[in-house]
Structures are given as C-alpha cells and as structure tokens.
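Q: Could you fold this chain for me?
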Amino acid sequence: MRHANLLQNISKNLTAMRKSERKVAEYVLAHPDEVIHMRIVDLAQESEVSEPTVVRFCRAISCDGFQDFKLGLAQQLASTPSFSQFSVNTEDSPVEYAYKVFDATIHTLSRVRDALDTNIISQATDVINAARRISFYGFGASAAVAQDAQHKFFRLGMSTVAYSDPHIQNMAAMSLQEGDVVVAISQSGRTKALLNSIALVQAEGGVVIGLAPSASPVANRCDISICVDVDEDNDFYAPQSSRIAQLTVVDVLAVGVSQARDVEITTHLEKLRQGLSTLRLPNDSY
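A: Sure. Below is the predicted structure, expressed as structure tokens.
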C-alpha cells in the first residue's frame, strides 16, 4: 500500500515543515477520521491556513496533491481498527462503559503506534543502553509512568531512579555526568518545572529523551523526542489514554534494550525469577 505509513510520515517530518504547514499536519494527526471527509477549503479553515498551504503540506509528505493525500489517509485508516468516539453518560451500563473504555484505549494505542518514528526509537534505545545512569522525570499522571519505567529498566540490571518532585529533580539534574540519560515524560508537553529540569540536565552534559506531544515545548527542548500525540477528553468520565500510550512506549524501549543485551539480560532475569520464587506461594497451595 503506497501510503500505508502516512501518519507516521507526517509525524516524522513535522519539525522540518514550515510553521503554516505544521499547523495542517498537527490538525491531521489530531483529527484523521474527520479529515478524510473534508474539502480542501474545510481543512484550510480548520487549520487556520490558506488553501495553497494545504497543497504545500501534501507535497511535503510526498503526496501528489490533496486528493492523493486523502486517498492515502483513507487507506491507512481502513487498514486499522476503527473505534467510536469515547463518550460515557450516567445511564451507561457496566457492559457499555467497559467496552467504551477499552475501545478508546485500543484506538489511542493504534494511532500512537502508527505515528511512531522507529528511527527515533532505535536512537533512544541505543542511548539508554549506553547510559551509566537513567533517570525518569514526570509529574501528576506522568509520575506514575516514570515510576513504572524505573521499575522496568531496574529489572534489566540498569541503574535507574524516578523523580516526581521538582526540587529533587533539579538537585538530581545538577549531579548528573556527561552521558547520563534523563527520560522526561509529559502528557501536556508544557510543564514549566519539567522544562527547567531539562535545561539543568543539558547544562550538565546529560542527554534528555522526551515522551511528549509533538511540537510541544518539552518535545522541542529534548535531545531525542518520541512524540506521543493523544486527544485527551476533559470529560470527567474519560480515561487518560495518554498514560496508557506512554506506558506502552516505555515497554517498546525496554524491549529494545533487552534485545541489545540478549544473553546478559536472559541470565539476569532468570536469576531474578529464581530469587523471587521464594516470595510466592506454590501453584498447588490453593
């Protein structure tokens, strides 16, 4: 399929686009299901750009024009599962809202997967694998992701720590050495305290990998940016799908590091399994 990775191609080329073209790209990444039904004038209006800018955007992602772009987008969306917009009301039964939550999460994971730049993933994996120490920074819901990431890479035999307090983050950042790695995690990509910590890390020679929305201040400030673009619904009942997407991207990085270490990791994990077996009841005890 000619445009099978169209959304990934858009995300990959986002930073190289002109500012006006980037506005179109960001709208497309956020509303792909709506864009396939739009006229060029509609997309221009929603993106707050001119129609010629939309044409330039299409050519920037190797499409012959607007119709070729829409065809490619429709083909990609048709090749992946489609789930309805998440919307829960007080009259929903447990079955209904359970399906809605799962469907919304699956939809989010599919979109983030298709937009991932595998070259960036490979680069981040190499940097993490070579690091002396890895720190994970995050606030709020992203703090839980940071803690989970710290646990995953600790299990791989790496020196890891997670911080969710801005004062501790800043102190830790100033104690880093050249080659140390910090993974900065943000759902909004606009947290001032996290941006301050990133600047301190880079001043000490550390490398910052970001998990944040594309074109956000955090993504733009990091040395390596892994874009996690999710439409969060502010409705009280809506789940925070970005947290699930971030956790999955962390899993992807952990698998990449495991592959790079291969036999060493296998031996280490088997040793952990045997050591932890004494903490569990045997299968036949209940």
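A (continued): The chain is about 55% helix and 10% strand.
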